[in-house]
């Protein structure tokens, strides 16, 4: 079988049936990763020796009749979670000691039998929707001059380039959904607390969650189910649910709001016409599937934006203080951390206190609608170096021009799923997001699977330039 082109579900089945060994599968993944590194640069750490040892153990367990959902399957994780024996640099310069314990999400991956082949690249502390910086640019498999997005750009590039069938990222302002949209992937931002962030009780004051990236809805749902669950120390612990069984389930006729208006954000840049057209085309597909779709917008309001900044910037300050040498950080990171320290007292407490009120106000929108359909980004993927060497203010302008749509659901803590929505005339991926109320992952997944069944986005693949070009990035 052509293992690397298979879905996560198919890979797990092939390993369980003995059609391929884990050592063979993991070796193929590692070889593809290492061949791509000089150009694609998706990984920060490649665990060849450790992964092959873990693959051999998976084969031993298979031979002994043991089963697990992902036993022996190669998987990647973002470099913001801890793996025992590996550093967690989170895009930052400096000498990081090896982690002495697994993060809870990594523990759950191991319990499911997955073999973690490496840790993927991230921008510094996950702040930007571009994956570059200390460890070089990660490039988009669809166009080497474009970014795959961020901050989970390494994970999205790895999946889009078929180095692994699925990977974990994290989403604090769209950092799973944005790279998914720019690389033709499904990306799930789950309900806050659905996946544990332990050893942090919460991440970035509650706005950041961990989520899966994959080529198909079933793959993303499987990975989400495998890693979902709480640690006793988690601050947010939603009631357990499963999402894989929603794939293929008819959700009935739903009321869907098509929302193209940007949330409160200071940018005059318009929505790209090709993305607007893709949104209307997807609305038409949803109507053909039996859903009611009307144009309407949630009442976001200025307070939502004011809630986001103290939480995100105070989170940057907390992370900067953990670094072995904060002086090595990007000047923009140090400036953001300075602002975060100023906001970490009364402004942060006020932001957290206002969250229930904001949730109730926007939640009333769901008295009339089941789902919101909106752009994931305002533009196709920009050039890989679009924020290199510019000021903090200019960086913020670039970010808000390209990515104004995703951050409100991080404040709210509710689930959202990026679904591929075609390609631009120049061949760049477009994504749209399905946004739900609290703990509606199964509903969103069922609709995403309906769309995938019609649109067949997983059949579109980029030309593998990263296997043909040998010069460094």
UniProtKB/TrEMBL annotation:
PROSITE patterns: AMIDASES
Catalytic activity: a monocarboxylic acid amide + H2O = a monocarboxylate + NH4(+)
Domain Amidase: 25-444
Region: Disordered, residue numbers: 127-156
EC number: 3.5.1.4
Protein name as it appears in the record: amidase
UniProt GO molecular function: amidase activity
Keywords: Hydrolase
Record family assignment: Belongs to the amidase family.
């Amino acid at each position: 079988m052509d293992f690397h082109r298979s879905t996560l579900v198919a890979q797990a089945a092939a390993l369980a049936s003995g059609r391929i060994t884990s050592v063979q599968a993991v070796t193929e993944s590692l070889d593809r990763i290492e061949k791509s590194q000089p150009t694609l640069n998706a990984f920060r750490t490649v665990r060849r020796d450790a992964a092959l040892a873990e693959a051999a153990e998976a084969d031993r367990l298979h031979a002994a009749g043991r089963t697990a959902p992902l036993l022996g399957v190669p998987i990647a994780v973002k470099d913001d979670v801890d793996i025992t024996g590996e550093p967690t640099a989170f895009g930052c310069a400096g000498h990081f000691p090896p982690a002495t314990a697994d993060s809870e999400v990594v523990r759950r991956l191991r319990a499911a039998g997955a073999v973690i082949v490496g840790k993927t690249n991230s921008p510094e502390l996950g702040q930007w929707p571009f994956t570059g910086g200390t460890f070089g640019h990660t490039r988009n498999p669809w166009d080497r001059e474009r970014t795959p997005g961020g901050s989970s750009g390494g994970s999205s590039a790895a999946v889009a380039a078929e180095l692994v069938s699925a990977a974990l990222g994290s989403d604090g302002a769209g950092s799973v959904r944005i790279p998914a949209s720019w690389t033709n992937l499904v990306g799930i931002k789950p309900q806050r607390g659905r996946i544990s962030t332990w050893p942090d009780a919460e991440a970035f004051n509650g706005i950041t969650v961990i989520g899966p990236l994959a080529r198909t809805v079933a793959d993303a749902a499987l990975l989400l189910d495998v890693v979902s669950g709480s640690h006793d120390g988690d601050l947010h612990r939603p009631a357990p649910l499963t999402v894989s069984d929603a794939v293929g389930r008819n959700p009935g006729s739903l009321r869907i709001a098509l929302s193209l208006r940007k949330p409160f954000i200071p940018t005059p840049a318009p929505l790209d016409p090709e993305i607007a057209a893709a949104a209307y085309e997807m609305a038409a597909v949803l109507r053909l599937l039996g859903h009611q779709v009307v144009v309407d917008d949630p009442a976001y309001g200025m307070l939502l934006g004011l809630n986001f900044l103290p939480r995100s910037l105070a989170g940057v300050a907390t992370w900067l203080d953990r670094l072995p040498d904060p002086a090595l950080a990007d000047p923009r990171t140090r400036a953001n951390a300075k602002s975060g320290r100023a906001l970490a007292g009364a402004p942060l407490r006020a932001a957290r206190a206002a969250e229930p009120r904001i949730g109730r106000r926007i939640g009333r929108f769901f008295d009339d609608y089941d789902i919101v359909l909106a752009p994931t980004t305002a533009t196709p993927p920009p050039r890989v170096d679009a924020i290199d060497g510019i000021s903090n203010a200019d960086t913020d302008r670039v970010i808000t021009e390209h990515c104004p749509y995703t951050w409100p659901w991080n404040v709210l803590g509710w689930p959202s799923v990026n679904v591929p929505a075609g390609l631009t005339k120049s061949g760049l991926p477009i994504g749209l997001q399905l946004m739900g109320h609290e703990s509606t992952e199964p509903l969103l997944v069922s609709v995403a699977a309906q769309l995938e069944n019609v649109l067949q986005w997983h059949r579109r693949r980029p030309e593998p330039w990263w296997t043909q070009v040998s010069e460094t990035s």
